[in-house]
Design a protein that fits this description.
By secondary structure, this protein is an alpha/beta fold. The chain is 45% helix and 18% strand.
Length: 234
């Protein structure tokens, strides 16, 4: 008799964003490579941490052989992830952290360092002085919070003549991010640049820059990658 197939539960922050579409492709490939069954399920939007909690609870009930999760909120997901660990399920945290300590491994970008790099790049682009704005992602998501903190800390320490004139959340939604960027541009017509810390916030900021015919005039530094980003760069 052959051994039962191993089931790996994978819970992304959201299923609708292009970043997690690419993560899903990697999960599919790994499942084939290691001859395991994947159980991919996540909320549609990164703001829906209640749905993500329900999904993880369901995987605990099913007692998957292992669990990988990118937490929508580092605090809100802590209890259910701890329940998974306490039930004997090995947990890998990826992309965005969660406030537990005894997970198996953590795989992510150095998001704080990336935010520092973004600050240095936009400071260079604006000539080391002037006003910039931030179109932020949402509260509670570790990856983007660290990017934003790295950006703010580096700007304060290394570029005191660059002022962060405005900060607004796009709440993980391109349209709300566009409105946030529009609001910032209206309030600060002398803005020299914008930093957008995630895929939806950057897509919204790109649209705001285009609609105001500021392409080539206002410096925009963003995160993540999509055909829309490529077209904007062109």
């Amino acid at each position: 008799m052959s051994a039962p197939e191993k089931i790996i539960g994978v819970v992304p922050k959201a299923t609708s964003h292009l970043f997690f579409v690419s993560v899903h492709a990697g999960v599919d490939q790994a499942a084939r490579d290691f001859n395991v069954k994947e159980l991919w399920n996540g909320p549609n939007e990164e703001t829906d941490h209640e749905r993500q909690i329900q999904i993880v609870d369901g995987m605990i009930t099913r007692h998957v052989d292992a669990l990988a999760i990118s937490a929508t909120d580092e605090r809100a997901l802590a209890k259910v992830v701890q329940r998974a660990i306490d039930s004997g399920i090995p947990v890998t945290v990826f992309d965005s952290g969660v406030n537990v300590e005894n997970y198996t491994t953590f795989v992510a970008t150095d998001n704080y360092g990336a935010g520092c790099t973004a600050a240095r790049r936009i400071a260079q682009l604006v000539g080391g002085k002037g006003k910039v704005g931030m179109v932020m992602h949402k509260p509670g998501g570790t990856s983007t919070v660290l990017r934003e903190r790295g950006f703010e800390d580096t700007m304060a320490k290394e570029f005191p003549a660059v002022i962060i004139a405005a900060r607004q959340y796009g709440m993980s939604d391109p349209e709300r991010s566009r409105s946030a960027a529009e609001n910032i541009l209206t309030a600060h017509p002398d803005l020299a640049g914008i930093f957008a810390s995630s895929e939806p916030s950057s897509l919204g900021a790109i649209q705001a820059v285009k609609s105001r015919r500021l392409s080539g005039k206002l410096h925009l530094v963003t995160f993540d990658f999509s055909p829309a980003h490529i077209e904007a760069l062109k």
